[in-house]
Amino acid sequence: MDWFRAGVSDGLRSEIEILLEQRAAARAAKDWPEADRIRDRLNALNVVVMDGPDGATWRVKG
C-alpha cells in the first residue's frame, strides 16, 4: 500500500476509484463543469487529484 493512501478503507478506496473513472469520462467528453464537480467531491473526501499524461493519481491530504 502506498504511504499516501494509508488508512483509507476499502469502501472509500472503491468510491474514490469510481469517482476518478467518472471524472476521466467527463474530461474525455470535455464536460468540464462535471469534471470540476467530481473533483470538488473528491476534495470534500480529503483527496487530492493529480492529473498527468498517464491519467489521474490521487493521495489523501495531510
SSE layout:
Blueprint: H1 10-28, H2 32-44, E1 47-52, E2 55-60
Antiparallel strand pairs: 1-2
Give a quick set of tags describing it:
52% helix; 2 strands; single chain; globular; 19% strand; two-stranded antiparallel ribbon; alpha+beta
Give the gist of this structure.
The protein has helices spanning 10-28, 32-44; strands at 47-52, 55-60. By secondary structure, it is an alpha+beta fold.
Question: What can you tell me about this protein's structure?
Answer:
This protein is α+β, with helices and mostly antiparallel strands. The protein has one domain (3-60). The chain has helices spanning 10-28, 32-44, and strands spanning 47-52, 55-60. A two-stranded antiparallel sheet has the order 1-2. The longest helix is centred in the first third of the chain and has 19 residues, at 10-28. The model has no long low-confidence stretch (mean pLDDT 88).
